[in-house]
Write a structure and sequence with these properties.
Oligomer: single chain
CATH superfamily of one domain: Adenylosuccinate Synthetase, subunit A, domain 3
Order of helices and strands: HHHEEHEEHEEEHEHEE
Largest sheet: 4 strands, mixed
Structural class: alpha/beta
Low-confidence stretches: none
CATH architecture of one domain: Alpha-Beta Complex
């Protein structure tokens, strides 16, 4: 049975077309199908380095995220050996990756969300669109409350701060330090119902106008940029080891 008009703007695919596509691309990769657990455990025993890359962020985790606005699986680093199939080894380092501002795809509470006139400009500069869907991401000021919680449940050892270059040209930068919920300030990340009514409390940081994409050392960054990174590090309580100022490999500063 063919289900029609589910996606009204798309053409209906025939079973023959789908089978042809599967056979075409499947033939190219079927020789790679194997017992990946065996490969991973042999590699680990041989002392080789293995890198697991997570999908989605901490708050989309089905267990410790902002349910029901989550994905259907666990997005935490501690799940990597199970999801990846490396059962007899422990992860020895967790690098938390976070942006220098907040972003969100899909619905759900977003405490530091910017008005669209502000968000739209930063979205275009940072190209904040879904990698697979192209859906525009919601944009917000940096949220130290949510980020601290995310780093904690990931069990991070160090942080990589990305897209700092996207903030160049901002006259001022806001960092959320607390949530106001029913008239009280909270530094700890609350349950989802409280997020719906939480109001952000900000500190204001000086921005910078310089192009920082050519910086390769932390002390080459404008003082305001250094202060911004250091303040984030102080507020979240986890060390920032890497700062990216562009998409290229060489644009990653070791702090």
């Amino acid at each position: 049975m063919l289900f029609k008009n589910v996606y009204q703007s798309k053409e209906v695919l025939s079973p023959d077309d789908i089978l042809k596509w599967v056979n075409n691309f499947g033939d190219k990769i079927k020789h790679l199908v194997c017992d990946t657990t065996e490969i991973l455990e042999d590699s680990a025993s041989a002392g080789k380095k293995i890198l697991f890359e997570a999908q989605l962020g901490s708050l989309r985790d089905i267990y410790f995220g902002i349910y029901p606005y989550t994905t259907s699986s666990c997005t935490l680093a501690s799940y990597a050996p199970v999801g990846g199939g490396l059962f007899n080894k422990r992860i020895d380092k967790v690098i938390g990756v976070m942006k220098s501002f907040s972003s969100c795809v899909g619905s759900g509470p977003f405490v530091t969300e910017m008005p669209e006139d502000e968000a739209g400009q930063l979205r275009e500069i940072a190209f904040e669109y879904g990698a697979a869907t192209g859906r525009p991401r919601r944009i917000g000021h940096f949220d130290a409350v949510a980020t601290k919680y995310g780093a904690k449940i990931q069990g991070v050892d160090e942080i990589a701060l990305t897209k700092l270059d996207s903030l160049s040209g901002q006259k001022k930068l806001m960092i959320c330090t607390d949530y106001e919920i029913n008239g009280k300030l909270h530094k700890d990340f609350p349950l989802t119902p409280a997020l719906e009514i939480a109001k952000p409390k900000y500190i204001e940081m000086e921005g910078w106008s310089e192009d920082i994409t050519k910086c390769r050392k932390f002390d080459e960054l404008p003082k305001a940029a250094q202060n911004y990174v250091n303040k984030i590090e102080e507020l979240i309580g986890y060390g920032i080891k890497y700062v990216s100022v562009g998409p290229e490999r060489e644009s990653l500063i070791v702090k």
